[in-house]
């Protein structure tokens, strides 16, 4: 069972592996090579993953067989363990608890060569529904306080398998960065009696300089103070604190916005590695007027980031106004027919 | 002039380049190659850097000529500009100010092939004195609220030049991570009326499981909840909030502790890339009972870190007890004679 430990100075919780801990020689200097070889996420290899917890099968085939469009399985090497109690306890002045949680993989497509950005909008929508369905199911477990959805695309972004997939981690604590957003947006709300994200939507729509794209439900923009070059957020226009409480039109709109952004980024940045994360409200809380879920997209363009870890202080070499202009003006096929991306 | 911009949700300041902003094609995918070629930090090439702001010349040679042991020059491509006022202002709902600050390079040795860890202890002590002397000089400028000393060693840690060097950035704001340490340690002090770092020193010395090494003035340890495998802190035993206010014995002891740790890390982790940062109190504040300066050492062993940027949530595959044991038990020549490292 992994351990969750709390830093006694700043209060940040960290997962510490205990069972399969890495020794010095395990940290390979070699670049990850992901091409070729056996892929456990490809159709026909369903028995090579843990049994599925969710799959969409338009033709109604049997569990853990071929015929799915999206498939969700537990991570074979989970960061957290699903069984047991939290057992919060002290270790002298320190605090820890059992590393209880769920760690799942959302296989986004049966096609090995596809990426989320090249999938048809309808297929991206299916992936978003899988995110929602898993959150709705897992939040019934009251041990879980937060459910993270994220995606590492490309070795530079930490992906170790090539086949397009996202990940879900259900946690007994709320991650630090989400707490900061919750607290910061609450302070803003106390002062202004308005949601800071709603205010950002208004100001950015009016000025337009940091806007990358827009559809009926979403604004895609470069944030005013981004940490990373070409960092981009997708914000729903309608105020809602929890991703999973959205109407079906919202997932349709987000699929469109996501595909549009990923195509633009692929064009402008030459198929970059990227991380994508959904920031949403903690799962055991009521709807919040001050918090507003959104998607953050962070292409991995620079390695110069070690220092930033030590200080929380970032230098961004590309002003967001310029990044937004490049992405906004990229020539992409906006009305790509669904068939085009099929293998 | 670069801009400092504040994130409106969580209040984090970011440096945004404006003059030489990077376009998409400027983000190279190629690994940094640093071997061979011209080195602006080598003796004889003093005219290729901006004029020095400090140098130690045992034989009293002229400025910007050969004969130095440590040399400090302004960064040729500074992240911040030194001239002008802060000019804090709003941009609608957003906040910004001019990117005023100093950005200097501390060239740690004239020997191109040396590393900080292979230098004799006395030479490392000189480097620490250079850090101190520059902080003492720069803090007279009341525009600067914080002075960061850090080191990127190796391309994986963000270094772009091979010749051993550290960096200094003087800032008109306090970086977020330092604010968190200041606030966290203050809360602890209010509750316990003791410094949290002093308490950590006591508990870790007693238990010993996370101790890497110890000398008269310093304890070197793996922290209880480290974000990264083999992350290690060096903490002065005597309470002091500001690095630059230490006695000369302290720099002597830190030089010993640093060399010892770097030799152990080089042995155990095969000369890893690393980041090193000095966390110290903001420069315009009086001595603090609740804050305690220290050094954080973070080897760059894994690329799997993109996700962590999006959430502030870390998975560490090596328990600190095991990391400390590897480092503690490494066989190194502890009484290396000063001559041995000379070229």
Name the CATH homologous superfamily of chain A. HIT-like
Count of extended strands of chain A: 15
Order of helices and strands of chain A: EEEEEEEHEEHHEEEHEEHEH
| Strand line-up in the sheet with most strands of chain A | 3-4-7-9-8-13-14-12-11-10
Largest sheet of chain A, in brief, is:
10 strands, antiparallel
Can you put this structure into words, describing what you see?
The structure is a homodimer of 343-residue chains. In chain A, strand 5 and strand 6 form a beta hairpin. Chain A is globular and about 50 Å long. In chain A, the strands form 2 sheets. A 10-stranded antiparallel β-sheet of chain A has the order 3-4-7-9-8-13-14-12-11-10, with helices on both faces. Chain A has a single domain, classed as HIT-like (HIT family, subunit A), CATH 3.30.428. In chain A, helix 1 crosses helix 4. Chain A has 6 helices and 15 strands. Chain A has helices at residues 121-138, 176-192, 196-207, 248-269, 306-311, 320-329, and strands at 3-6, 13-16, 54-56, 70-74, 89-91, 94-98, 102-107, 146-153, 165-171, 211-214, 218-221, 232-236, 274-279, 294-299, 314-316. The first copy, chain A, has 343 residues and is of the alpha+beta class. Chains A and B meet through strand 1, strand 2, strand 8, helix 2 and helix 3 of A and strand 1, strand 2, strand 8, helix 2 and helix 3 of B.
């Amino acid at each position: 069972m992994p351990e969750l430990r709390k830093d006694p100075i700043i209060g940040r919780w960290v997962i510490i592996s205990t069972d399969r801990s890495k020794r010095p020689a395990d940290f390979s200097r070699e670049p990850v090579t992901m091409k070729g070889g056996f892929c456990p996420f490809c159709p026909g290899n369903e028995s090579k993953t843990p049994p599925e917890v969710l799959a969409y099968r338009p033709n109604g085939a049997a569990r853990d067989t071929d015929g799915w469009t999206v498939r969700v399985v537990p991570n074979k090497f989970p960061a957290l363990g699903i069984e047991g109690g939290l057992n919060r306890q002290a270790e002298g002045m320190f605090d820890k608890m059992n590393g209880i949680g769920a760690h799942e993989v959302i296989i986004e497509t049966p096609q090995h060569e596809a990426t989320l950005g090249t999938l048809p909008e309808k297929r991206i929508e299916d992936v978003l529904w899988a995110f929602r369905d898993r959150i709705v199911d897992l939040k019934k477990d009251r041990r879980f306080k937060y459910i993270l959805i994220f995606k590492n695309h490309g070795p530079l972004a930490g992906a170790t398998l090539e086949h397009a997939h996202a990940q879900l981690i259900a946690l007994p604590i709320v991650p630090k960065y989400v707490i900061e957003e919750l607290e910061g947006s609450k302070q803003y709300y106390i002062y202004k009696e308005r949601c800071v994200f709603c205010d950002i939507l208004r100001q950015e729509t009016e000025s337009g300089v940091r806007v990358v794209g827009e559809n009926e439900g979403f604004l895609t923009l470069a944030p005013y103070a981004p940490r990373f070059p070409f960092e981009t957020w997708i914000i729903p226009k309608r105020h809602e604190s929890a991703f999973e409480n959205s109407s079906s039109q919202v997932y349709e709109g987000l699929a469109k916005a996501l595909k549009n952004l990923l195509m633009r980024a692929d064009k402008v940045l030459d198929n970059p590695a990227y991380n994508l994360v959904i920031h949403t409200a903690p799962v055991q809380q009521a709807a919040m007027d001050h918090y507003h879920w959104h998607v953050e997209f962070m292409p991995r363009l620079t390695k110069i980031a070690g220092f930033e870890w030590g200080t929380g202080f970032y230098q961004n070499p590309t002003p967001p106004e310029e990044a937004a202009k490049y992405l906004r003006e990229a020539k992409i096929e906006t009305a790509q027919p669904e068939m085009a991306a099929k293998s």
